[in-house]
Write a structure and sequence with these properties.
heterodimer, A: alpha/beta, Rossmann fold, 2 domains, five-stranded parallel sheet, 14 strands, 16% strand, B: mainly alpha, ABC transporter involved in vitamin B12 uptake, BtuC, two-stranded antiparallel sheet, 13 helices, globular
């Protein structure tokens, strides 16, 4: 009946299995190759890699010696005697989606400051209102009117990403709502003429050259491929690095990928074709981890580096062993000491990137509220004239919202 | 150059490179990688083409059948076989790895096949009973695609903790890609080899089923003329169910191969873009034509890679769709043209 087809089907399957077996056998011959894989004898694949702060550097990549006699950082609890009508501080950032860890870090940092303040000042209770932008500038444009439309909100910690900030800055400027971003690092944001824009950390114009100079002068790389992800933040950072590296950044492997890509085989082929000793990726860690793994799998042995978007434990977790030795930069400071302990106690995990900046910026807003600035205009004025020490750094702003003093931290995965 | 284009997409569009040097250097590597991707597209494209041939319906929910297959394979690896998600690759030795992958593939095929059958029973059969217009089928297909996506997005996390939701699953990497040999200077890794061989085997089996078995003859008969086929003793309902089953099973296999290549790609929206590309591949090769779907898939995979190298990696998806438009302009029925119903007996 169907014997002929059945026989040919069996024959084909047998042939396929044979080929499978051959493929398998050649896998066998290389699985004993222990040269490149530390996990080849491990049963369960786990890494103990962590992101370890190295040092703060200036724009030439040279180390900044930290002053040991700085003033004590501002405490959100204040002196415990503040009284005010109930007001709210808003927070805007990605609370869901691929970038959720960053937004959650910002929210938690602000929440810690607010809870410390509320606990110490029963007469002045401030609420934190969190708005989820999903990291998407389109979504943020819809969220911004909600924030300014809520009369109880007198200040904003956020938005978190550069793209979101660019899309919504004009809205906050028109409403006169002070928007202190703990993490948006795109340079152009400060040049938009927004009176309400305040950046709580150094921008990519500082970060890019600092990282590039560190890699050029201190690490001493000779040939680099710089990859960006076509987003506002990524392009800005990548271009700053390309410009500073100059001839070291090989233009033949100047690659743009798309955020959300999962397969980078063409980019990997192009990079390997140039045999660089450094690959820089800007700027989010999901794609960076994938690219790094695919690079390592293809035999790349050079250094991998990236700016603050990669500075998250999730990067190390996703990339696994491939992340060993990666050099990361961040305008954000390492969260240690009393702040880290309180944060861990409250949220059950170590503070993440920008938690510290969010904490400091929320503290500044709270201090303003405590001092009697409970309207948007008054708080805006307060922030504009503020000068004080935070946990991470000294805060004082130029008229267009940049910090008056700059510092970039270098981290290493080890 | 790109500096001035910050946030201005029209300006970015002016930055299409034309990098022949790049294409020439990486040609064979790009071809090999493209074949691997093309094999995955081909397997998914078969689902689209079979259902179109038999029902004249573009099953837009097929991409979600694929996505469910991914989650099925992940579930098998995670809960049934007991691997812990991690960024590092496991190395269990060849025999065991092949066995585990085989089990995961079978489980993925099971999940996808069941999902396809369920989809047919819930969404399409009631419409067929009522003799609905083709447009209604189309809208239902798109609607089901969204329903399944959002099911995994929002409801699955409530059913199984840690599954679904907005973020991709933590990867379970069973095979560490390692170069096996070189062809014309291109590295062929074990993953590429497994993907191509497995996909080709399954494609071959599908082709044999459609063209040389009684079952396949039934499918082709219903595709050609459902009424006469019924007169010849072919049950239309049973044939339709079988068609969906075959498509689903192949999508499940493709899902396992996909997560072998991209372990971090298991997310509710992971099927969408791939589904569109597979559908384009099916149309490229000739919708309704099984061999066309296979050819279209392989061709699309390779051309995408060449396009990436030539124009820039950010233009990958654009190349895929522009290619489709160009082929349709020149040859509207697709490359291999003939439909399922007119295939040789």
């Amino acid at each position: 009946m169907r014997s002929r087809t059945v026989r040919s089907a069996i024959a084909t399957s047998a042939a396929a299995l044979a080929v499978f077996g051959v493929a398998g056998c050649s896998k066998q011959s290389t699985s004993t190759d222990t040269a490149s894989s530390a996990t080849s004898t491990a049963q369960v694949a786990e890494t103990n890699l962590k992101i370890v702060p190295q040092m703060p550097v200036d724009q030439n990549g040279a180390e900044i010696k930290l002053a040991t006699d700085a003033a004590p950082p501002a405490n959100p609890a204040g002196n415990g005697t503040a009284t005010c009508a109930p007001v709210a501080i808003a927070m805007a950032g990605p609370l869901t989606g691929a970038d959720a860890p960053f937004g959650t870090n910002v929210k938690d940092g602000a929440q810690l400051a607010i809870d410390q303040h509320n606990a110490a000042n029963p007469g002045c209770q401030v609420e934190l209102k969190a708005f989820d932008t999903e990291g998407d500038p389109q979504k943020a444009t819809a969220i911004a009117p909600q924030i300014v439309g809520d009369a109880s909100i007198v200040g904003l910690v956020g938005p978190t990403w550069s793209g979101e900030t660019k899309a919504t800055g004009a809205v906050f400027d028109q409403a006169g709502l002070a928007a202190l971003t703990p993490s948006a690092t795109n340079v152009a944001l400060a040049d938009q003429g927004w009176k309400t824009f305040f950046r709580g950390l150094s921008n990519d114009g500082v970060q890019g050259p600092s990282l590039a100079n560190y890699l050029k002068n201190v690490v001493g790389v000779k040939k680099a491929c710089v990859v960006d992800d076509s987003t506002d933040a990524g392009l800005g950072q990548a271009n700053a690095v390309r410009d500073t590296l100059g001839p070291i950044a090989d233009s033949a492997c100047n690659i743009s990928v798309k955020k959300g890509d999962k397969d980078f085989s063409a980019a990997v082929t192009q990079i390997n074709g140039q045999s660089p000793d450094l690959v820089v990726y800007a700027s989010y860690y999901t794609e960076a981890a994938l690219l790094l793994q695919q690079l390592r799998d293809s035999g790349y042995t050079g250094t991998f580096s990236g700016p603050d978007g990669l500075n998250d434990p999730q990067f190390v977790k996703s990339a696994g062993q491939a992340a060993d030795g990666a050099i990361l930069s961040c305008p954000c400071g390492p969260a240690t000491g009393a702040f880290a302990d309180e944060y861990t106690k409250k949220f059950g995990q170590a503070p993440g990137t920008y938690s510290l900046e969010a904490y400091d910026l929320a503290t500044i807003l709270l201090k303003g509220i405590d001092s009697g600035a409970v309207t948007r205009e008054a708080l805006l004025n307060y922030v504009r004239n503020y000068s004080g020490q935070g946990v991470a750094r000294m805060y004082q702003w130029t008229p267009n919202g940049e910090l008056t003093s700059n510092m970039i931290w270098i981290y290493k995965v080890q | 150059m790109i500096h001035e284009c910050l946030g201005d997409y029209a300006c970015l569009a002016g930055n299409i490179g034309f990098n022949i040097e790049n294409l020439r250097n990486g040609f064979w590597q790009l071809t090999v990688d493209g074949l691997a991707w093309g094999s995955i597209y081909a397997l998914v494209a078969v689902g689209y083409t079979l259902v179109f041939g038999v029902l004249r319906l573009i099953n837009f929910a097929h991409s979600e059948i694929f996505m469910l297959g991914m989650f099925g394979a992940y579930f098998c690896l995670d809960k049934i076989l007991g691997f812990t998600p991690s960024g590092n690759a496991y190395n269990k030795g060849v025999g065991l790895t092949v066995l585990y992958l085989g089990i995961a593939m079978l489980f993925a095929m099971l999940v996808s096949g069941t999902a396809a059958l369920g989809l047919e029973a819930i969404a399409y059969r009631p419409l067929r009973r009522r003799n609905a217009r083709p447009l209604t089928f189309l809208i239902t297909a798109i609607g089901m695609s969204f329903v399944l996506q959002e099911f995994v997005h929002f409801i699955l996390p409530q059913l199984i903790t840690g599954y679904g939701g907005s973020n991709a699953q933590q990867p379970i990497i069973l095979v560490r890609p390692r170069t096996q040999f070189h062809i014309f200077g291109a590295d062929v890794s074990n993953v590429t080899l497994v993907v191509i061989v497995a996909a080709l085997t399954l494609a071959l089996l599908a082709d044999i089923t459609i063209n040389r078995t009684k079952l396949g003859r039934g499918i082709r008969a219903v595709a050609q003329d459902p009424t006469t086929a019924t007169l010849m003793g072919v049950s239309r309902e049973r044939t339709i169910i079988t068609t969906f089953l075959i498509g689903g099973v192949l999508a499940g296999a493709a899902a396992l191969l996909f997560i072998l290549k991209v372990p971090q790609g298991i997310i509710y929206s992971g099927g969408f873009l791939l589904g569109i590309k597979a559908f384009s591949a099916a149309v490229l090769g000739g919708i309704g034509n099984l061999r066309g779907a296979l050819l279209g898939g392989l061709l699309l995979g390779i051309m995408e890679n060449y396009g990436q190298a030539l124009f820039g990696t950010q233009w990958r998806d654009v190349v895929a769709f522009v290619l489709l438009v160009l082929v349709l302009l020149i040859r509207p029925t697709g490359i291999l043209g003939e439909s399922l119903g007119k295939a040789r007996a």
